[in-house]
């Protein structure tokens, strides 16, 4: 079964959260914003990565975004320059190189199933259990990326970043308590999975 991941974005105007959703919804919200006076700073972020997303120049004035990384994201998958090798077409299995240490290959070779079957089963188990440590790491990375772009000049930023990577939720939330309301709540939203499995200190 193929898992489809729909990327969502969040749009801010001068630190006020305007909309969240797909890119067409974000563009529509910015274009129809009745609060425009011509001097607003619009900032859009990818909810999955915390990265700044460059909207159309008519929506994000270039004179107001010099401190932000610009670059329009691609919403379509570009065809790979290398042909994909299909293992079992009916299952959609794609063959790609996996690099392991000798002890890993030795362990895989001792299993009753093929190495590919064992790896697929292990990955499926992690997905089902939700215990993947990469989820917490990714949450930390995207939160810190967002904070460095949108909140790097806020008091306590450096300390908050360190608390985030320690998994210290109570300290992290205390340090960002006085940040602008909508930006603070979005920071908490991004950081949520980073603290799963960590005991509050």
Task: Describe the overall structure.
- There is one protein chain.
- The chain starts with 8 loop residues before the first strand and ends in a 10-residue tail after the last helix.
- About 13% of the residues have low confidence.
- Helix content is 39%, strand content 11%.
- It folds into three domains: 56 residues, no CATH class; 36 residues, no CATH class; 63 residues, no CATH class.
- The protein is an alpha+beta fold.
- The protein has seven helices and six strands; from the N terminus they run ββαββββαααααα.
- The strands form two sheets. It has a four-stranded antiparallel β-sheet with strand order 2-1-3-4, with helices on both faces.
Number of helices: 7
Residue runs with pLDDT of under 50 for 5 or more positions: 57-82
Helix-strand pattern: EEHEEEEHHHHHH
**Nearest-integer average pLDDT:** 78
Order of strands, main sheet, comes to 2-1-3-4
Shape: elongated
Strand fraction equals 5-15%
Estimated helix fraction: 25-40%
- What structural class do the secondary elements suggest? alpha+beta
Summarize the biggest pleated sheet.
4 strands, antiparallel
Give the total of domains.
3
- Counted beta strands: 6
- Rg over CA atoms, rounded to whole Å, is 21 Å
**Gap between N and C termini, in Å?**
40 Å
Q: How would you summarize the topology of this molecule?
A:
Blueprint: E1 9-13, E2 16-21, H1 23-31, E3 42-46, E4 52-53, E5 85-86, E6 94-95, H2 102-109, H3 115-129, H4 133-150, H5 157-166, H6 169-175, H7 181-191
Antiparallel strand pairs: 1-2, 1-3, 3-4, 5-6
């Amino acid at each position: 079964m193929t898992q489809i991941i729909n990327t969502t974005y969040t749009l801010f105007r001068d630190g006020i959260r305007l909309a969240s959703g797909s890119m067409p919804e974000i563009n529509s919200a910015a274009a129809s914003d009745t609060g425009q006076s011509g001097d607003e700073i619009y900032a859009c972020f990818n909810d999955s990565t915390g990265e700044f997303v460059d909207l159309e120049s008519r929506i994000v004035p270039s004179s107001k975004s010099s401190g932000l990384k610009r670059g329009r994201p691609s919403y379509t998958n570009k065809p790979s320059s290398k042909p994909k090798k299909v293992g079992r077409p009916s299952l959609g299995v794609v063959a790609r190189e996996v690099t392991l240490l000798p002890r890993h290959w030795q362990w895989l070779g001792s299993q009753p199933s093929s190495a590919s079957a064992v790896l697929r089963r292990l990955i499926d188990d992690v997905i089902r259990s939700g215990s993947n440590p990469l989820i917490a790491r990714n949450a930390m990375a995207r939160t810190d990326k967002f904070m460095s772009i949108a909140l790097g000049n806020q008091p306590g930023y450096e300390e908050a970043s360190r608390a985030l990577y320690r998994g210290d939720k109570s300290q992290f939330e205390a340090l960002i308590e006085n940040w602008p309301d909508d930006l603070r709540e979005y920071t908490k939203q991004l950081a949520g999975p980073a603290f799963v499995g960590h005991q509050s200190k």
